[in-house]
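Researcher: Hi, I'm a grad student and pretty new to this. My advisor asked me to get structures for two proteins we've been looking at. I'm not sure of the right format, so I'll just paste the first sequence and hope you can take it from there.
Model: That works fine. Here's the first sequence with its structure tokens right after it:
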Amino acid sequence: MISRPLYIEAIKAFIDKPQVKIITGIRRSGKSTLLRLLRSEFLSRGVREENLISINFESFANYHLLKAEALYSHIREIVKPSSRYYLFLDEIQEVEQWEKVINSFLADMDVDIYLTGSNSHLLSSELATYLAGRYVEIPVYTLSYREYLDFRNFYFPEEEKTDQRFPHYLRNGGFPVIHTGGYSEESAYKVIYDIYSSVILRDTVQRFKIRDVELLERVIKYAFDNIGNTFSGKSIADYFKSQQRKVDINTVYNYLNALEGAYILYRVPRYDIRGKEILKTQEKYYVNDIGIIYATMGYRDRMIGGILENIVFLELKRRGYRVFVGKLETTEIDFVAERQGKKMYIQVAYKLDSDQTIKREFGNLLSIDDQYPKYVVTMDDFWRDSIEGVNHFYISDFLLTELF
């Protein structure tokens, strides 16, 4: 196993603390591997093997534990009153009334609990009722570009370190399984499509009891086709109307909400930079991993700008930023990123291939009247100039640089 220190370090801060650690993310993003890495961490600290209890609820071997009462009885039989235990419960959402049983573990036993789940509604109002103030979420994403390089170096040490590594990442995305074997591009997309299909069926259609699967697929296609563009549920409903299909706008929003819940899409609100307020219309949506777009729609050159935005957005989220689409009067800033009281502004473009493009990308940032860092990120590996304090980055350099 390859360590993923970004997440391990985030979890370490809460080891033996009273909070339940909930590791969330799309299926096959590496959550189960993180639990195994944590087990190794505890063993290295001298915790005995018998005090580490691991259960994967997607294994048929544990089918009998999918009822809260059965799970509680099983753990109760193992845990001894005189010792501390560590519970690693994988895909906990498969257990009926799991919130109640986790709350009971905290009340009745000396345990430190680590959960994984593939649906963001794990953190629903019902969970908050049972575990108010007693859980912390650690979101897990598919591989960053830095992690992708670590995987390639580990699994393919003989591979030449060429400047084609970022294009390979750009065309394949970051699902870990893709980068542990020698998949062709076609085979990689097949694997990703199977992951995507599983997420749609189990974490979207079944969990949200969606009946009109064909409409859901149309909503997904619209969202994927508009990566990097602002739109709303009304935009989608109006589009369907133009196709002679009447769709209730509330249904569209329910489907978008379900796709967010399954970590297929992330919604990014707009932020009025001058008015310093979050706006309620015309958000952007980005996909969890760009490989999903290719696996479902094929590779399209015209989408490259939105794909690059998607990659930068995911990198900002991995680093713990709150991310917004910036609005400055009639000007749009691709990203306003905030963390720990600091802020930065980012424009993403494919190429700075004309004076008009340079003026637009740099000019939008120069119109912001504050001293926070400002960056233009592109695929121009030769274009290095900064303009009036706005720095330019080749995208792979940006992804590997700690900005603050």
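Researcher: Oh nice, that was easy. Here's the second one.
Model: And its structure:
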Amino acid sequence: MRNPLGYKVLRTYQRGEEIYELTKKFSAEFLHPIADSRLIGHLNDSARSVPRNISEGYGRNNTKQYLEFLGFSFGSLVELLEDYFALEKDIKGRQRKTKDNEKAIREISTLIKLCMGEKSMLKSQMETMEKIVGEQGLISDKQRINKILADRRRNEKEVDIWLQSVIDDEKRKKNAGG
């Protein structure tokens, strides 16, 4: 029988808890409790969902359900990252003021790095679970093909964005020099 608290040894769960604690600390220290109450709630809820969905999925009856909850965790993490990117942009662009913008930027940078590491670990964990689900016959060939096609489209889009940035950089250089 599997240990019902085995999720606590998972690095993704431990890192998720760390991100949650640091997010609560950041929110309390750098965001206004009234003016930023919705943002604080969203940051804290998204951060809380990361480890909670890992633990809930771990407690589910089968691997397919566990994979679904890892997906929920991943989605919450991406939401949290987007909020941190937006906060960083607003503070650097002086659209948002905190009691110590330099320290807030350092804290956000640390949180973004932690979230990016968690994102990589969760993605790897999900890929492992997807293989297990496939081996157990819990997903159909059609679902597997659709996932492969979606991954391919996402990768192609990332390449297109990168290529466009290279083209734009070359145009800027040409215009600056010419």
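Researcher: Is there anything I should tell my advisor about the second?
Model: You could mention this: The two ends are 71 Å apart (CA to CA).
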